[in-house]
Design the sequence.
């Protein structure tokens, strides 16, 4: 059974449901506090999956995820880059996404380049929602067919039940230049989009999640760990027929990554 | 290099939007100023005090404080970019949560210990300095906690505390006469009555000494209304003069704790015990076996499954929220969460609730008369010392949002009630629910246990919160009690929670024997309560302080937030300390439980500064006998603005649209969407339901345990419209709460209730009489529904005295909160209609012409005349209806269910269509009714105990036979027309129009 590391720290609050999603998908999950990891980064080496959970790390002081990202850039970036190089899928929903982009592991180096030894300067950001306020709701999402994301690739997300919940104040996906958005699109690094017209925060290109060039690291504003059973869906009392068979979209993502990790371990 | 204060500004890069500035500009525009700002640019300001090189400062600006993609940093102050400049800085000593986190990051980055203050700069375009100042005072800052500057503020040094030198102050009491005692009580902010002051005088007279200041404060805190609920526990002589045949008489005879006197008056010994507690005890004696811990702990506990229990507590934080709504509401949430952490051996918080009562936002001028423009002439000037209700509501919502979301606790059930009598004294109810193992529902300190404090540091904030909340507000309270106001720091509380849950679940067993929160009264209440049977010795100089200069008394009674007190056996201290260190939760050992003679002994730097007998502290409060009368109905408070003749509705459609737009009824989407109600992954029925997420759910359902299918429904009932008879009002609130829970699929035989009374001063016998009636209704309601009360709280001095001496009393307000077990969440239903062709059925009490207290009457009736009777709950039938409806839902015969409450039947039906985007053809001819009420009454009467159920045509015979003799009728059919119609062309309105009215009012 692949084992998943859940990194917690002050203000992280989606750690339990993230662990539960990994467990439902067939992995075991272990919580390690960031302070322990900062002291012993090699603890990461024994895990096959990693989750950076959502929440308000350090109260989102300065900006969402900033302080955790600054701490991790200095002491954990290298160990995480090594984990990605050895094929460990990483999921970073919401605050995890905000931390990941500021830490420098998203969008990562171009496909043919190695991970730099020091964290690169961020080229994407999660700005305040265009409405200026926190929003909690479910949004329709679609998986771009060309994505190379291990977590989302191939998931059919074109029926009305394909929704995920969002809950954030700083989730507007922004790139440093229009060119970098095109580059991400062409390299299959857009892992998830909001359904057109259902974009909750003004994200450019309706981008809800991106992955690195290997497709292993997924950062996204929606919370797939909050959609692992059908009766979490906001319209489950109305859903009938084929749309409610199989795994709910959120759980399906964890199944794909856990299967990948299990296969990688077997090889 | 000399240590100095560095200043860094961070603002959006040119071309990037400034959502904070846009929001500030919107707020300013709503003030109705003659020259509002056309644009506001904002910047975050960081003041950093420490030994830092220029290069380090630049590194902090670029690598820590500014986002490289979005923002740009300026060292020092950028020149003003607009016509006016405002900076808002927290006053010295005010909690600055971001500052602590920035200090931590700087330590990690540079290894430097620095002090940080954060602030915000606003450059206002298109306005002058004096208007900018007004905008600052009304939107951007609250001078209770903020300083406003009109230039960039860059101090040489920060204001710090100065060292404290011990001084023990005695308060001469022995020679004081009655007048002097009363004067002392008020002047020292003790808020004790004359009888209480005399009891203290007598106690110290016995020992021949005068009380020391800290002793007097300890007694005042412990005996405060807030802590001991002395009014509800007093002996009450109740008299009622019912001349109005409509008012139900309370069936007093035979009730425990009640005596009928020869003159017809009734003596009630301990009102709380004789009504609310008595009902629960009777139900337990009668076989209810799922209430393992009620009324004894920080929250009431019920069984959830064989191994787990859930607990629920609702608190109010009214007076702090009147003065500083953001901080008041946030710390209200934080305090209630700590009640759950402090229940048994710590429960895990899994859900939060919030209910607000405020004045109508559009009835009050936002700016002084001279500046107003285009406002209705009917608007009134705000009394001095009051914040505008729109500001209060916006800020309390923000406070709940920021605290609840940061704690990772879904806020998923609530309500807002508007009434102008809340203008000076808004109500903020915060609730929290927790889950725990059944074997951990209680814990007691043992002699020798260390008194351990975990969490935030102690400061001067929040001093006298307990006594302040027990006093009445006046126009000078904002100045006099600003130190009672606090800002919360949710991350500190989250760290505390993480550490405590880890200590609770330690592999070697729970590391502590008992835990409680530091709420009102601070250490004095927490330690005093935990040590009441053992005694306690406390070393006040050991408490970690936010800044120097606090006296032992201030340390002892400070209500600084985010602190818990634990009783820890000495052998577990090291393990507990290791856990706290990992989670960065500060821990200190304050002393020890257990003294000879069960005394409370207070020391500072080894010297005794106070000593009290626990027995006197907890048992010495003189029992009062209080007078209560009730003679309905009395008109008090503000006069409601008269209804202009042209305001009368001219059709059913017009009435319906105006009711849907009434703030009490209108969608609360604006609030709900700001709360994370999905966190923890247990959300099953959400606060907003239907295909577009616009339908108002009757209740929320969550999974307390993710690997179980057993759910918990959460709802509330509030029927303040029926305030003219609090007995009727309280029963309606209980009925509404039960209906809300039943409508989503809760088992009505597993519903537990909480009471929260918010009342005007009970020194007035009429108000106390109203309270008696409400409490008696709780007794009758709990027994009739077999729904025990498990916890409650009261706040009894909710009124505001204006600068010209007029007292505005709040309406007597009783919030009933309820939780109900859902045996299998796959049986849950929502309120959005599901399918064209399905039937709409009304089940429940016959509709009447009792329009009293209805929203129809509020909008269109002559409120002062109060002609129409109040609709009453029929306790013989209502519980049966609830059980029958629950049975239909459980057996899958109901496609959607909605309770008829505010606005009446037609409003409820309209909400079902708005939620579903279906049409509905109604015919109310067969509506079960008494005395053939006219159509308006059929549509808008707020008769309790009625449910609307959507059923499939094929199931009609089965449903009818199951309902047997209960009043029920099919009143409509859903269709795909997207119109709501009534037979005989009495109504034909598009659902889109209904939706617009309903969504528009509070779309802030």
Sequence:
């Amino acid at each position: 059974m692949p084992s998943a590391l859940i990194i917690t720290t002050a203000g992280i609050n989606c750690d339990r449901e993230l662990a539960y999603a990994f467990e439902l998908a067939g992995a075991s999950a272990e919580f390690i506090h960031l302070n322990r990891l900062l002291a012993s980064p090699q603890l990461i080496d024994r895990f096959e999956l990693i989750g950076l959970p959502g929440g308000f790390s350090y109260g989102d002081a300065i900006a969402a995820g900033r302080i955790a990202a600054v701490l991790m850039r200095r002491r954990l970036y290298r160990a995480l880059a090594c984990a990605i190089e050895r094929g460990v899928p990483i999921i970073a929903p919401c605050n995890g996404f905000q931390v990941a982009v500021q830490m420098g592991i998203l969008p990562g180096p171009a496909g043919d380049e190695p991970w730099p030894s020091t964290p690169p300067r961020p080229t994407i950001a999660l700005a305040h929602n265009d409405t200026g306020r926190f929003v909690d709701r479910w949004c329709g999402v679609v998986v771009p067919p060309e994505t190379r994301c291990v977590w989302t690739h191939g998931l059919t997300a074109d029926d009305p039940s394909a929704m995920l919940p969002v809950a954030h104040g700083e989730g507007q996906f922004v790139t440093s230049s229009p060119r970098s958005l095109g580059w991400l699109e062409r390299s299959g690094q857009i892992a998830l989009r909001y359904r057109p017209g259902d974009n909750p925060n003004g994200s450019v290109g309706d981008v809800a999640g991106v992955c690195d060039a290997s497709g292993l690291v997924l950062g996204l504003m929606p919370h797939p760990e909050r959609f692992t059973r059908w009766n979490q869906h906001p319209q489950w009392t109305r859903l009938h027929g084929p749309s409610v068979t199989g795994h709910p979209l959120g759980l399906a993502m964890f199944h794909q990554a856990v299967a990948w990790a299990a296969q990688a371990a077997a090889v | 290099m000399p240590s100095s204060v560095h200043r860094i500004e961070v603002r959006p890069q040119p071309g990037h939007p400034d959502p904070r500035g846009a929001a500030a500009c919107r707020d300013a525009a709503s003030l109705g100023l003659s020259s509002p700002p056309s644009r506001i640019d904002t910047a975050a300001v960081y003041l950093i005090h420490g030994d830092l090189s220029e290069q380090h400062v630049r590194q902090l600006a670029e690598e820590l404080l500014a986002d490289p993609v979005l923002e740009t940093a300026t060292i020092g102050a950028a020149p003003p970019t607009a016509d006016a400049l405002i900076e808002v800085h927290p006053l010295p000593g005010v909690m600055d949560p971001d500052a602590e986190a920035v200090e931590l990051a700087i330590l990690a980055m540079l290894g430097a210990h620095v002090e940080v203050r954060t602030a915000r700069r606003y450059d206002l375009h298109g306005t002058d300095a004096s208007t900018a100042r007004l905008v600052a005072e009304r939107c951007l800052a609250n001078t209770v906690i903020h300083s406003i500057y009109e230039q960039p503020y860059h101090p040489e040094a920060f204001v710090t505390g100065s060292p404290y030198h011990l001084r023990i102050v005695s308060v001469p009491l022995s020679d004081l006469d009655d007048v002097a005692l009363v004067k002392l009580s008020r002047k020292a902010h003790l808020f004790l009555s004359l009888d209480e002051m005399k009891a203290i005088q007598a106690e110290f007279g016995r020992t021949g000494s005068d009380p020391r200041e800290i002793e007097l404060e300890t007694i005042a805190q412990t005996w405060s209304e807030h802590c001991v609920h002395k009014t509800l526990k007093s002996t009450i002589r109740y008299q009622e003069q019912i001349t109005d045949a409509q008012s139900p008489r309370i069936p007093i005879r035979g009730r425990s704790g009640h005596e009928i006197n020869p003159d017809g008056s009734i003596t009630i010994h301990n009102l709380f015990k004789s009504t609310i507690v008595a009902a629960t005890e009777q139900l337990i004696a009668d076989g209810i076996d799922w209430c393992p811990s009620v009324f004894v702990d920080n929250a009431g506990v019920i069984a959830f499954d064989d191994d787990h229990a859930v607990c629920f507590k609702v608190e109010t934080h009214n007076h702090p929220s009147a003065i500083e709504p953001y901080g008041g509401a946030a710390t209200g949430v934080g305090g209630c969460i700590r009640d759950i952490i402090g229940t048994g051996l710590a429960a895990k918080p899994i859900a939060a609730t919030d209910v607000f009562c405020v004045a109508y936002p559009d009835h009050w001028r936002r700016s002084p008369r001279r500046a107003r423009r285009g406002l209705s002439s009917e608007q009134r000037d705000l009394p001095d010392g009051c914040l505008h209700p729109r500001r209060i509501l916006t800020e309390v919502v923000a406070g709940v949002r920021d605290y609840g979301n940061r704690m990772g606790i879904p806020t998923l059930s609530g309500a807002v009630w508007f009434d102008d009598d809340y203008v000076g004294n808004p109500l903020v109810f915060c609730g929290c629910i927790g889950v725990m193992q059944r074997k951990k529902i209680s814990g007691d300190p043992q002699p020798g246990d260390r008194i351990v404090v975990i969490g935030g540091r102690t400061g001067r904030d929040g001093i006298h919160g307990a006594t302040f909340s027990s006093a009445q507000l006046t126009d000078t309270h904002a100045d006099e009690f600003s130190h009672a106001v606090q800002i919360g720091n949710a991350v500190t509380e989250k760290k505390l929670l993480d550490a405590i849950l880890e200590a609770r679940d330690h592999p070697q067993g729970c590391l502590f024997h008992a835990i409680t929160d530091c709420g009102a009264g601070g250490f004095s209440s927490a330690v005093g309560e935990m040590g009441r049977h053992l005694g306690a010795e406390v070393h006040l100089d050991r408490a970690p302080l936010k800044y120097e200069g606090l006296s032992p008394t201030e340390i002892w009674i400070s209500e600084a937030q985010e602190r818990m007190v634990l009783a820890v056996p000495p052998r577990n201290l090291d393990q507990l300390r290791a856990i706290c260190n990992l989670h960065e939760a500060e821990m200190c050992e304050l002393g020890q439980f257990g003294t000879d003679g069960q005394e409370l002994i207070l020391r500072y730097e080894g010297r005794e500064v106070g000593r009290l007998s626990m027995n006197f502290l907890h048992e010495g409060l003189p029992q009062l006998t209080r007078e209560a009368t009730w003679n309905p109905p009395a008109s008090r408070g503000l006069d409601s603005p008269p209804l202009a003749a042209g305001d009368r509705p001219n059709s059913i459609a017009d009435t319906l649209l105006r009711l849907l737009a009434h703030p009490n009824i209108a969608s609360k989407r604006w609030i709900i969407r700001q709360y994370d109600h999905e966190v923890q992954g247990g959300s099953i029925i959400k606060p907003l339901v239907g295909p577009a997420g616009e339908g108002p759910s009757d209740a929320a359902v969550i999974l307390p345990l993710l690997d179980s299918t057993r759910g918990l429904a959460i709802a509330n009932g509030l029927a303040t419209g029926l305030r003219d008879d609090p007995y009727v009002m309280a029963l309606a609130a209980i009925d509404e709460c039960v209906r809300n829970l039943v409508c989503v699929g809760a088992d009505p035989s597993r519903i537990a209730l909480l009471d929260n009374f918010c009342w005007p001063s009970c020194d007035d016998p009429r108000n106390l009489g109203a309270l008696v009636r409400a409490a008696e209704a709780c007794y009758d309601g709990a027994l009739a529904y077999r729904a025990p009360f498990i916890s409650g709280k009261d706040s009894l001095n909710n009124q505001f005295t204006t600068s010209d001496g007029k007292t505005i009393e709040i309406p007597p307000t009783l919030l009933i909160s309820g939780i109900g077990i859902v045996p299998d969440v796959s049986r849950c239903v929502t309120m959005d209609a599901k399918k064209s062709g399905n039937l709409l059925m009304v089940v429940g009490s016959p509709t009447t012409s009792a329009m009293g207290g209805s929203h129809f009457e509020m909008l269109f009736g002559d409120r002062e005349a109060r002609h129409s009777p109040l609709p009453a709950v029929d306790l013989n039938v209502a519980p049966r209806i609830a059980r029958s409806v629950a049975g239909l839902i459980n057996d899958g015969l109901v496609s959607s269910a909605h309770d008829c409450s505010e606005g009446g039947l037609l409003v409820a039906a309209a909400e079902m269509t708005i939620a579903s985007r279906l049409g509905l053809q109604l015919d109310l001819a067969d509506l079960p009714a008494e005395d053939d009420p006219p159509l308006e009454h059929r549509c808008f009467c707020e008769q309790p105990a009625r449910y609307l159920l959507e059923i499939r045509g094929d199931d009609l015979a089965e449903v009818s036979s199951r309902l047997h003799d209960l009043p029920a009728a099919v009143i409509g059919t859903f269709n795909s027309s997207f119109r709501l119609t009534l037979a005989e062309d009495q109504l034909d309105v598009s659902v889109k129009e209904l939706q617009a009215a309903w969504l528009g009012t509070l779309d802030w």
